[in-house]
Structures are given as C-alpha cells and as structure tokens.
C-alpha cells in the first residue's frame, strides 16, 4: 500500500508541474479570453490516458506503474482524462444511458458545486 501511495504522490508531483508548464505555454502562444491552456491540457491528458490504457491493457503493466501514470501523473495533469476514459468505456460497452448520465451529472453537479462553493465564501 505504501508503494502505491508513493507512486501516486510522485506521479502527482510530476503531473502538477507538467500541467502548469503546458497550460502556461498554450496560454502564452494563444492569448485570448478563452482558457486555451486548460482546454489543451484536457485534450492532451485524454489522449495520453487513451494511449496508456491501450498499451497497459494489451501488454500488461505493473500496478505501481498504472498508479504512477494514471492516478498520479494524469490525475494531477488533468482529471478530465479519467472522465474521458470512463465515458469511452461506456460507449464501447454500448451503455449509452450511462454515458449520457455520466456526462450530464459530472458537468451539471460540478458546476453547481463550484457555484455553491463560490457563494458560501463570497
């Protein structure tokens, strides 16, 4: 268990730094009022988790490596990558109701939660 915790922590450390660098880079090269840095981080993270799990599922990857890369690095880089992967699994299994429900609940409830959090400390 301690190995998994350390792997996730180290991956998270690297992922958070990579997020800051990547987001800043895209925000500087595409200056605009839209948060392009976040958009590109989410796209890149979703692409990377697709690559990683495709490889991990076909070749077999040690659980510590999975924890370091998926939960740690990509989790800190963008939680949107996990959201995207879970929705892909719903689509691949033909579970369209769960797919739509997951998208709706995540977007609607997270927007509601951030709004409530903002209101509480306003």
UniProtKB/TrEMBL annotation:
<protein>
    <recommendedName>
        <fullName>Fluoride-specific ion channel FluC</fullName>
    </recommendedName>
</protein>
<feature type="transmembrane region" description="Helical">
    <location>
        <begin position="68"/>
        <end position="85"/>
    </location>
</feature>
<dbReference type="GO" id="GO:0062054">
    <property type="term" value="F:fluoride channel activity"/>
</dbReference>
<feature type="transmembrane region" description="Helical">
    <location>
        <begin position="97"/>
        <end position="121"/>
    </location>
</feature>
<keyword id="KW-0813">Transport</keyword>
<dbReference type="GO" id="GO:0046872">
    <property type="term" value="F:metal ion binding"/>
</dbReference>
<keyword id="KW-0407">Ion channel</keyword>
<dbReference type="Pfam" id="PF02537">
    <property type="entry name" value="CRCB"/>
</dbReference>
<comment type="function">
    <text>Fluoride-specific ion channel. Important for reducing fluoride concentration in the cell, thus reducing its toxicity.</text>
</comment>
<keyword id="KW-0997">Cell inner membrane</keyword>
<keyword id="KW-0406">Ion transport</keyword>
<keyword id="KW-1003">Cell membrane</keyword>
<comment type="similarity">
    <text>Belongs to the fluoride channel Fluc/FEX (TC 1.A.43) family.</text>
</comment>
<keyword id="KW-0812">Transmembrane</keyword>
<keyword id="KW-0472">Membrane</keyword>
<feature type="binding site">
    <location>
        <position position="78"/>
    </location>
    <ligand>
        <name>Na(+)</name>
    </ligand>
</feature>
<dbReference type="GO" id="GO:0140114">
    <property type="term" value="P:cellular detoxification of fluoride"/>
</dbReference>
<feature type="transmembrane region" description="Helical">
    <location>
        <begin position="34"/>
        <end position="56"/>
    </location>
</feature>
<dbReference type="GO" id="GO:0005886">
    <property type="term" value="C:plasma membrane"/>
</dbReference>
<feature type="binding site">
    <location>
        <position position="75"/>
    </location>
    <ligand>
        <name>Na(+)</name>
    </ligand>
</feature>
<dbReference type="InterPro" id="IPR003691">
    <property type="entry name" value="FluC"/>
</dbReference>
<keyword id="KW-0479">Metal-binding</keyword>
<keyword id="KW-1133">Transmembrane helix</keyword>
<keyword id="KW-0915">Sodium</keyword>
């Amino acid at each position: 268990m301690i190995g998994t915790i350390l792997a996730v922590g180290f991956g998270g450390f690297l992922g958070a730094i990579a997020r800051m660098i990547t987001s800043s880079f895209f925000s500087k090269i595409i200056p605009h009022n839209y948060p392009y840095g976040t958009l590109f981080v989410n796209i890149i993270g979703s692409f990377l988790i697709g690559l990683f799990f495709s490889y991990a599922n076909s070749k077999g990857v040690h659980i510590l490596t999975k924890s370091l890369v998926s939960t740690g690095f990509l989790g800190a880089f963008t939680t949107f990558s996990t959201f995207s992967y879970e929705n892909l699994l719903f689509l691949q299994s033909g579970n369209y109701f769960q797919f739509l429900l997951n998208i709706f609940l995540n977007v609607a409830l997270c927007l509601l939660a951030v709004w409530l959090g903002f209101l509480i400390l306003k």
